[in-house]
Amino acid sequence: MTKVRTRIAQAACAVALAICTACGGAAPVPSGPGLYVSNEMGGDVAVIDLDTRAVKARIPVGKRPRGIRTSPDGTLVYVALSGSPIAGPGVDPKTLPLPERKHDGIGVIDVAQGRLVKTLPSGTDPEQFAVSLDGRRLFIANEDGGTLSVLDVAEGRIVAAIPVGVEPEGVDLSPDGRFVYVTSENDGTVTVVDARSLQAVAAIPVGPRPRSTGFSSDGTRAYVSAENGNLINVIDTASHASIGTIPLSGPEWKPMSVALSRDGTTMFVSTGRGRMLVLIDPATQKEIATIEVGERPWGLVVSDDGKTAYSANGPSNDVSIVDVAARKVIAKVKTGDRPWGLALVK
Q1: Euclidean distance between the first and final Cα of the chain, in Å?
Q2: What is the rounded CA–CA span in Å between residue 63 and residue 119?
């Protein structure tokens, strides 16, 4: 009976999406837990119903949606949009079309309405960003500009632009909300920005091509992925100093996103071309499991209870749903053209 109900729900969702496409409007988003997926080449955000494991809505947002986060109260979803052309590593910028800066911004999705309600300024070429604990500010990496733009959400204006190294990417907030960690792909550093004074207080050398930062539950340690170093850097957050590394065993693994379970007992690392989701025990700094999730897993998010992990697999246009205890993928959901980032709405 459960399977029948699931099929009925999936069919209803497909009909709603078809009607939406035909009329050119936004499909209403049913209530309940949802996983919001930014599709970089599709220009939209797909919403996965976590009960039926089916896409229940698609929300057009603009060009190159990548980084995606929820507001603290869960009523809004923010998504970074960019007018810069897509370019892989080693591509000569001179061979690319000119950027269209009018498309840069932070799209704001109203969860209840299920649609984009406005676009906020972002600085040039926003890629990833963090939301302050009170929801009043966004801290936005400007990949083309080498800066961290600070957006006052209520006023809708940039209040500061802080140099953070060439090609900044990952932007993550410490658990207490005091510091923002920004990775620089080109410089191999993590710049630590004081979220109150809006001043850079440290630039920490890490492994080559750092991507993102995860934090221990008590905030005393930060873990930074180094894509081209095949390792995770361990940082003492009190001294803003690197205190070691966690090497990954797979030589082909390219660590990308880092997330920790809320209780701090498990670290999750997506490995890009390595196809794996790697689970690490932060206490022992040893790998405890590897799960093949799909083609080039990048975006990563973990449920609050730590029982389920989700990975965005760009080349195969799907999201993998992982049962953490069983150590296996229990479902894959086709979400659109090049899924990039993930955000959970309860």
Answers
A1: 26
A2: 12
SS (H, E, C) the chain: CHHHHHHHHHHHHHHHHHHHHHHCCCCCCCCCCEEEEEECCCCEEEEEECCCCEEEEEEECCCCCCCEEECCCCCEEEEEECCCCCCCCCCCHHHCCCCCHHHCEEEEEECCCCEEEEEECCCCCEEEEEECCCCCEEEEEECCCCEEEEEECCCCEEEEEEECCCCEEEEEECCCCCEEEEEECCCCEEEEEECCCCCEEEEEECCCCEEEEEECCCCCEEEEEEHHHCEEEEEECCCCEEEEEEECCCCCCCCCCEEECCCCCCEEEECHHHCEEEEEECCCCEEEEEEECCCCEEEEEECCCCCEEEEEECCCCEEEEEECCCCEEEEEEECCCCEEEEEEEC
Angle (CA) 311 30 41, round 5°: 40
CA distance 234 to 254: 17
State the Cα–Cα distance between residues 190 and 211, nearest whole angstrom: 9
Distance CA 307, CA 294 (A): 19
Torsion of CA 274, 279, 285, 287, to 10 degrees: -70
Residue 192 contacts residue 150 (beta carbons within 8 Å): no
Tell me the pLDDT tens digit for each residue of 316-325: 999 999 999 9
| pLDDT tens by residue, 181-194 | 999 999 999 999 99
Q: Identify the band that residue 15 occupies on the pLDDT scale cut at 50, 70 and 90.
A: very low
Q: How far is CA 144 from the centre of its chain?
A: 18
Where exactly are the structural domains of the chain? 2-345
Calculate the alpha carbon distances from 184 to 9, 21, 107, 194 in Å: 44, 39, 24, 17
Per residue in 84-115, pLDDT (tens digit) is: 998 766 667 777 789 899 999 999 999 999 99
Structure tokens at 27: 């499909």
Look over the chain and give the mean of its residue pLDDT values, rounded to a whole number. Answer: 91
Domain spanning 2-345, CATH architecture: 7 Propeller (2.130)
